[in-house]
Amino acid sequence: MHWWNNQSKGKAAYFFRRQYYGGNWASFSFSGLLSWIKENQKTADPCEGNTRWEELILENEEGIPLNKADQTIQHVEDFCYASQDLAEDVEEAGALPKAPASVASASSEVIEEVSGTPEAEEKCFPLEDRPSGTKDEETFPDSAAGSEPECTADHEAVEVTSLGEKPCDNVTPGQSVQEVENNEAASIVEAAAEPRKITYSQIVKEGRRFNIDLISKLLYSRGLLIDLLIKSNVSRYAEFKNVTRILAFREGRVEQVPCSRADVFNSKQLTMVEKRMLMKFLTFCLDYEQHPDEYQGHKDSKFSDYLKTQKLTPNLQHFILHSIAMVPEADCYTIDGLKATQKFLQCLGRYGNTPFLFPLYGQGEIPQCFCRMCAVFGGVYCLRHPVQCLVVDKETRRCKAVIDHFGQRISASYFVVEDSYFSEETCANVSYRQISRAVLITDRSILKASSDQQISILTVPPMEPGQPAVCLIELCSSTMTCMKNTYLVHLTCSSIKTAKEDLEPVVGQLFSESTETESEGAGEGQKPQILWSVYFNMRDSSGVDRTSYANLPPNIYVCSGPDNALGNDCAVKQAEAIFQEMFPSEEFCPPPPNPEDIIYDGDGTQPEDPGFGNPSETNPETLPEKSTEESERPSEE
Question: How far apart are CA 399 and CA 41, in angstroms?
């Protein structure tokens, strides 16, 4: 919950009943997630202990009670499939502390300091804007020109080349040093190809290497959130990796989808005719508004039906519908499908060969980055500080204060309340959607590649009519979200039943829950084994209109939790709309001033340098022009 005071312009206080930042946008270590699971498996009265505030309400006031406990998470079920030998005696090791983002301006230095593991050598980069008008942004066919190579290095090759630096003490008579080195190299590559057995005790011990998101999202490289991060300079607090693969699931197989022109013409999945058909259609989608005759007659048709009229093969229709447009087949119309395809194509080439970015250490880093920027300029954050009620003036019908769990009255002019704080009485007329979520820790990727450091997204079509499509995001250890030799898999869909009932069919198609004995002799086509999993349902209040809440004063603004979309546009639009209602003449998230230009009320002393550089360095309007070659690849700082 947040409040603003007009008498102190720009100052805000934030009260959280939880002991962590971000609410349902948060990320947890493994032990932190286990604590979160235990907390949400309890059944508690949300209004328990909230009656003391009634004694503090004056005669000309009335109170709106708030929930003490969060009721947005339901049906939490966790399962362990890894060997649990001695797991109860193992404690989490202090292995991987998060580097403060204010120190993380040079990504390569930060990663080397945090971890000496091979995955730390993978490319990551801070956000910086790309000048418009470069070759990679004009049309889809040129988007791959000069595009970055795979964001990951082949770890086996790294280990093999380092063998020459080691002394060879095990040379036998008649055997040269080169032969020994070759034999050792072959054995290392062979060992690396075999999946290593991961036990539950290892997962617990390496628990701090996990950063597990409650909600799974990616950032479109030309989405509203990326633009906001650059404009506000909040991007300097975070680092990102490019999603390396977009996958498709068809006829029981997982395969990689060609995105750029180079990918299309190098693809072995498509015939030459299909390649030309796909390029022609995607080029049309880039500026479909200029060719209304091509789609006006199909405006009321479903996008899937429109694709059939374009003489595309079933293979191409599947790729476009589920892996490029990523829209539901049942209720997506032609215009919406064309817009989604256009957005995908426009995002290609800005930071890499796919449209998506993922923040290092997980999605939960994004709200914390905004918290850091706000705190530098006077914002106050209070964790573990529940608010009992809102105090409303009976005459003006405006909220004038809140009463916290200490009984302290805090006055303000504006109040922003997250939906989950409202009582059942306030939300009696509200109808919520639900999101089904699953998080898996697995021992290998769903699609083997030359490098084990892949970030992949896969949309699985509905298994049966009436079921939703499932979005799957697979993260490797170089994203700093899981331990080495494991993968973190997020599955998300709209809820029909419980999360386990909704997602278990997809999990069964792609993963194995087999025991150790059943999985011996891993073969080329064997499914990844699940080591641990959790399922839960999360409330989606993003589509709720403010008028649905009963008797809310006009200066109380409601914000929702995460929505079910892949991107973050809904949250950015909602935040900007609330801000503009409160401060219509102010700019939303402007670039911060230089530290030396800040003047505080009082003695006029300058604050200590909070660590910002000149904001004009990353302001899109003042960025120096770059060559086409520079603009087609991410920064390697």
Answer: 34
CATH number for the domain that contains residue 394: 3.50.50.60
Strands (DSSP E) along 513-560, which ranges? 530-540, 556-559
Asked if residue 366 is part of any domain, the answer here is yes
Quote the CA–CA distance of 134 and 632 in Å, as a whole number: 8
Could you tell me which residues are beta bridge partners of residue 488? 441, 475
For residue 365, count CB atoms less than 10 angstroms from its CB and return exposed for 0-12, middle for 13-18, buried for 19 or more: buried
Q: Is 212 helix (H, G, I), strand (E, B) or coil?
A: strand
Edge-first strand listing for the sheet containing 12-15: 380-382, 12-15, 2-4, 414-418, 556-559
Which pair of structure tokens corresponds to residue 33? 């997630």
Residue 241, SS3 per DSSP: strand
With beta carbons less than 8 A apart as the criterion, state whether 70 and 420 touch. Answer: yes
Sorted by sequence, the CB contacts under 8 Å of residue 403 that are 6+ apart come out as 53, 56, 63, 387, 388, 389, 391, 409, 410
H or E element, residue 434: strand 433-442
pLDDT in tens, 293-344: 888 889 889 999 999 999 899 999 999 999 999 999 888 999 999 999 999 9
**Amino acid at site 193:** A
Is 328 inside a domain boundary?
yes
Expressed as residue numbers, the domain containing 274 is 260-347
Per-residue pLDDT of 415-449, as tens digits, reads: 999 999 998 888 888 889 999 999 999 999 999 98
The torsion defined by the Cα of 572, 575, 577 and 578, in degrees rounded to 10, comes to 170
Q: In angstroms, rounded to a whole number, what is the distance separating the alpha carbons of residues 13 and 2? A: 6
Q: Cβ(513)–Cβ(81) under 8 Å? A: yes
Whether 427 is in a domain gets the answer: yes
Q: Does 484 fall in a domain?
A: no
Residues in the chain: 637
- Predicted TM-score (pTM) of the model is 0.79
d(CA 410, CA 3): 9
What is the domain-level CATH number for residue 292? 1.10.405.10
Number of domains in the chain: 2
Of 347, 382, 411, the domain-final residue: 347
Q: Token pair for residue 480?
A: 């700093």
Of residues 530, 592, 629, 630, the one with CA closest to residue 102: 592
C-beta of residue 560 within 8 angstroms of C-beta of residue 574: yes
| H or E segment and range at residue 471 | strand 470-475
| Token pair 């704080």: residue | 421
Shared-domain flag, residues 374 and 427: yes
